[in-house]
């Protein structure tokens, strides 16, 4: 079947021959029996048929030749010339193909004619030389893609067949010819266009180079970031070499995704580059020596090694954004417990308040009054006319006698502590004052009232803590959990408060009878056992340990992109587990047991409150972190997370042949880039035939910016909770980190700058020292010299200003001062240590937020720069020795970098850094090879993009006109890489001082200019 399909392309169908024989026989019979047509008519018909068949063959041949020429010089950018404007900006390649088909067909038909005797038959298309004529001629040619682009269906209208006998016109017909030719020119062009489109995609724009680059960069960045965190002498976590190598790997993957296979020479070069990069990483080398292109790219035309796979990405066990981090409550629970043990905190947020609340009783006097006798109250009687009443006063003289009458009873939930009854006689006197002019007169009267009064002293247990509501027994009697007072002392306290302080029982009864009793209700607190505080604190310590075990598991990638809020998740977890953590009994064993649970609730609430404050701080920091990302074109942390997620998108590769049925058929395509490996260095014509001779060509330009390379500066300070008001100064903690990190390399120029920085840090600590002394004096009874001595002793625990400053920042200094002050007190008390530590924590934090504790930025930056230079020098000098001895934890890894996530003293759970990576590249020449559509058996068709100018003689004057250019396959894309490492140490980041690293001829790869005359194609 295949042979028949191929034969029919150059033969007249058998059915048509049968029809022609039948018509010829009929014509001959008619000529014998009649006069019939002349011999000239019979010759004209035969000539017309032969010319028609010849035009079809000419069209088929023209299509094949035009397709190969269009692939060899594809027009992708029309020229601004009269003939270049024949091509549309939207589909210049197809328009150029139609123009070539017309010109080749015209040329073929001019050389094709049929002659028999005096009869001549020719086929022709309209002559066209001007742009307008050529446009009309092109409109007569239609090109259709068939069989997945592996074949062309071409239709030509107005093809004219002319027959002449000598000079006489015998016949003329306009016909339409359609042929289907097996040539994959459109498939090659469309795949090349798709390849270029994918190369210019960013990670979130769909499958392409940006996504593949992201997938390859993340394993590199995370592996090197964790290695640097572990102490390896890594100056650049993400360097130009890593960007170059991963970009080439991503290019080859994109080739496979589009063409079904990748460049064989590119694969070999990629393996060499990966091996060389591995050696560089192991030896900590980072310089660009200018010879990489010669080592990576072999001389052209060597036999291709088609076997082998590209170096794969690291396995799942390597550090990656999928790594899970456990963030626990431990540090905050400890701080919450320390804060709970401080007095003068409102409500139930101090230990004393929580314990006291469990011993609260609401006491009241319940009274009754029954009047048994009364005389009428006298009415005023004026002493005479014109007297005016100006004042009335009443006085009462009570007489109280004991009685056995019934007193009121206690209500529901109340306990009656005492009761008494009295008979009360009230002798009342009234005085009226009268005035008449300047005269004053007083008159009066008396009357008597008798009352039977009952009074009950009651109380109800009314704890106002947050412990769950449960029955409490026993109450108002000694016993309970600690066999303590247990409210047994409350009745006496209530008697004293409501009865004795109001004059005693008789006075209270008289006041009840007179309706003038002042206080009838009061809150009374019972005595607490002496060991209640220590007993409760031991229980709280156990609860703190339970809280410390509570953690949430988060993905490192989400931490790195600030798209997870661990404090908020921890707070939610504690709220969900609240009942189990409080663990209240079904019935409290007295007030002490309730006090213990009150304290547990208070500790849990304080811990949740701290977590929620951290969560709010985290959200504010996230917003500022997003602003920093916005400077490099990333909309938000959520966008950064989506970029991270794209790295796991699988590469979907088609079959290694473009599918198609006859007359096209399957097409195997081999991409061939020149250079096969795009490097940031110059590549010569000797190494890549597509590179112009005697022209420097840099096929790749890269840029990677480390957003938080230094522990200070615009980006790092922007996400810090304490940003200094003066941009020329940095925070004390930042300066301290640099000071401590520079100690191992403190020689020469580093030593001089370090001394100046040390003096500046020490001076900044002086203000903090003064605040600490005042806090000690206000929180204790120490004298001023004693307070100064306590602060000095605590400061001396750390040997140098850098470590003292770090102790102040992480909360250790406050605790040390509190302990030192308590030792100088007359009677040391643990609870006083806790109270003082909280006060000092506040004082130190307030001091660190002021500009008086900041350090000049130039001192820090100069020390850091010289430290980096010295570290790199030592790393280079001792690389071999370190490898031999296995001592890789050199000072280079001590340079601090990155931003602590939630940099709150005592609660720092990760360090994050971000790199923005941009790549721009261009193949000097990019070729797609296939055996389908070749002019000769065993040959190859080539689709070539090399930036050359496309010229063609379209008007037949013998000179080529400029149609346009076949643009090089070039690209530009970018991605963002975020890395998170565990807390402490010195974080992660580029520490060689080059936060903005550029490679190649950034920002323009290739030649100096993209103009055709400045960057010509290779011959």
UniProtKB/TrEMBL annotation:
Keyword Coiled coil tagged: yes
The record's annotation in Pfam families points to:
DUF7286
- Which residue windows does the record flag with biased composition (Basic residues)? 293-302
In what ranges is there compositional bias, type Polar residues? 390-404
Q: Provide the alphabetized UniProt keywords.
A: Coiled coil
InterPro entries registered for this protein in UniProt: DUF7286
Where would one find coiled-coil regions in this protein?
594-621
Q: Where is this region: Disordered?
A: 286-327, 367-415, 988-1019
Basic and acidic residues bias (residue ranges): 367-380
Protein name as catalogued: Uncharacterized protein
């Amino acid at each position: 079947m295949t042979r028949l399909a191929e034969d029919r392309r150059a033969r007249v169908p058998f059915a048509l021959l049968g029809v022609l024989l039948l018509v010829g026989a009929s014509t001959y019979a008619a000529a014998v029996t009649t006069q019939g047509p002349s011999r000239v008519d019979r010759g004209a018909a035969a000539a017309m048929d032969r010319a028609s068949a010849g035009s079809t063959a000419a069209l088929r041949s023209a299509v094949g030749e035009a397709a190969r020429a269009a692939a060899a010089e594809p027009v992708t950018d029309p020229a601004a010339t009269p003939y270049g404007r024949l091509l549309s900006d939207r589909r210049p390649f197809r328009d150029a193909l139609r123009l070539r088909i017309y010109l080749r067909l015209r040329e073929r038909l001019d050389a094709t004619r049929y002659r028999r005797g005096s009869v001549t038959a020719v086929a022709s298309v309209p002559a066209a030389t001007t742009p307008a004529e050529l446009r009309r001629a092109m409109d007569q040619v239609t090109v259709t893609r068939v069989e997945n682009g592996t074949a062309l269906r071409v239709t030509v209208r107005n093809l004219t067949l002319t027959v002449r006998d000598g000079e006489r016109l015998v016949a003329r017909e306009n016909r339409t010819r359609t042929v289907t030719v097996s040539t994959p020119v459109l498939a090659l062009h469309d795949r090349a266009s798709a390849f270029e489109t994918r190369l210019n995609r960013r990670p979130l724009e769909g499958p392409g180079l940006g996504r593949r680059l992201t997938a390859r960069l993340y394993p590199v960045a995370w592996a090197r970031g964790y290695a640097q965190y572990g102490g390896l002498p890594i100056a650049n976590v993400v360097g130009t070499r890593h960007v170059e190598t991963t970009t080439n790997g991503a290019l080859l993957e994109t080739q496979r995704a589009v063409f079904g296979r990748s460049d064989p020479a590119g694969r070999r070069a990629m393996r060499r580059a990966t091996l060389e990069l591995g050696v560089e990483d192991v030896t900590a080398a980072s310089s660009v020596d200018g010879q990489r292109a010669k080592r990576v790219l072999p001389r052209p035309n060597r036999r291709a090694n088609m076997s082998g796979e590209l170096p794969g990405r690291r396995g799942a066990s390597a550090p990656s954004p999928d790594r899970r981090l456990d963030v626990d409550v431990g540090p905050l629970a400890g701080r919450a417990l320390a804060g709970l043990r401080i007095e003068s905190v409102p409500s139930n947020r101090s230990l004393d308040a929580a314990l006291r609340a469990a011993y609260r009783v609401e006491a009241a006097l319940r009274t009754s009054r029954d009047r048994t006798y009364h005389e009428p109250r006298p009415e005023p009687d004026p002493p005479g006319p014109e007297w005016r009443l100006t004042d009335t006063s009443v006085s009462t003289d009570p007489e109280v006698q004991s009685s056995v009458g019934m007193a009121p009873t206690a209500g529901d939930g109340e306990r009656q502590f005492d009761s008494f009854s009295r008979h009360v006689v009230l002798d009342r006197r009234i005085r009226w004052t009268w005035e008449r002019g300047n005269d004053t007169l007083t008159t009066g009267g008396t009357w008597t009232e008798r009352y039977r009064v009952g009074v009950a002293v009651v109380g109800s247990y009314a704890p106002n803590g947050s412990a769950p509501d449960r029955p409490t027994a026993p109450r108002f009697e000694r016993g309970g959990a600690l066999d303590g007072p247990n409210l047994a002392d409350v009745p006496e306290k209530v008697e004293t408060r409501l009865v004795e302080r109001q004059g005693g029982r008789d006075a209270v009864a008289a006041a009840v009878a007179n309706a003038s009793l002042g206080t009838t209700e009061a809150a009374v607190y019972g005595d607490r056992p002496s060991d209640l505080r220590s007993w409760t604190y031991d229980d709280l310590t156990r609860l703190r340990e339970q809280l410390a075990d509570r953690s949430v598991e988060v993905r490192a990638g989400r931490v790195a992109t600030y798209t997870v809020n661990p404090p908020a998740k921890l707070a939610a977890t504690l709220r969900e587990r609240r009942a189990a953590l409080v663990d209240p009994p079904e019935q409290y064993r007295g007030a002490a047991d309730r006090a213990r649970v009150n304290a547990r609730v208070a500790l849990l609430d304080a811990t949740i409150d701290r977590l929620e404050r951290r969560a709010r701080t985290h959200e504010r920091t996230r917003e500022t972190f997003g602003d920093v990302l916005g400077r490099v074109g990333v909309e938000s942390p959520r966008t950064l997370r989506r970029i991270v997620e794209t790295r796991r998108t699988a590469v979907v590769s088609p079959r290694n042949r473009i599918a198609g049925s006859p007359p096209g058929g399957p097409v195997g395509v081999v991409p061939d880039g020149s250079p096969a490996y795009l490097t940031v260095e110059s590549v010569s014509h000797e190494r890549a035939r597509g590179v112009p001779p005697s022209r420097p060509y840099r096929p790749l330009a890269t840029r990677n910016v480390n957003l938080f390379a230094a522990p200070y500066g615009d980006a790092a300070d922007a996400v810090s909770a304490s940003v200094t008001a003066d941009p020329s100064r940095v925070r004390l903690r930042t300066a301290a980190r640099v000071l401590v990190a520079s100690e191992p390399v403190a020689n020469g120029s580093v030593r001089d700058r370090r001394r100046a920085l040390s003096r500046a840090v020490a001076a900044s600590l002086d203000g903090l020292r003064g605040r600490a002394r005042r806090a000690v004096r206000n929180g204790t009874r120490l004298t001023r010299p004693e307070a100064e001595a306590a602060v000095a002793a605590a400061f001396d625990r750390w040997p140098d200003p850098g470590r003292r400053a770090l102790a102040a920042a992480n909360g250790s200094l406050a605790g040390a001062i509190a302990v030192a002050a308590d030792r100088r007190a007359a009677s040391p008390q643990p609870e006083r240590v806790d109270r003082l530590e909280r006060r000092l924590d506040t004082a130190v934090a307030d001091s660190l937020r002021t500009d008086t504790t900041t350090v000049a930025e130039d001192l820090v930056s100069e020390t850091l720069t010289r430290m980096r230079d010295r570290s790199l020098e030592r790393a280079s000098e001792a690389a071999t020795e370190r490898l031999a001895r296995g001592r890789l934890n050199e000072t280079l890894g001590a340079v601090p970098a990155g931003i602590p996530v939630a940099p709150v003293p005592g609660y720092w759970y990760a360090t994050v850094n971000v790199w923005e990576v941009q790549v721009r590249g261009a193949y000097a020449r990019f070729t797609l090879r296939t055996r389908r559509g070749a002019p000769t058996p065993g040959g190859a068709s080539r689709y070539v993009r090399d930036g050359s100018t496309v010229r063609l003689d379209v008007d037949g004057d013998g000179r080529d006109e400029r149609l346009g250019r076949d643009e090089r396959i070039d690209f530009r894309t970018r991605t963002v890489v975020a890395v998170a490492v565990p807390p402490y140490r010195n974080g992660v980041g580029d520490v060689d001082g080059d936060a903005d690293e550029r490679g190649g001829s950034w920002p323009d790869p290739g030649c100096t200019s993209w103009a055709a005359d400045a960057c010509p194609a290779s011959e």
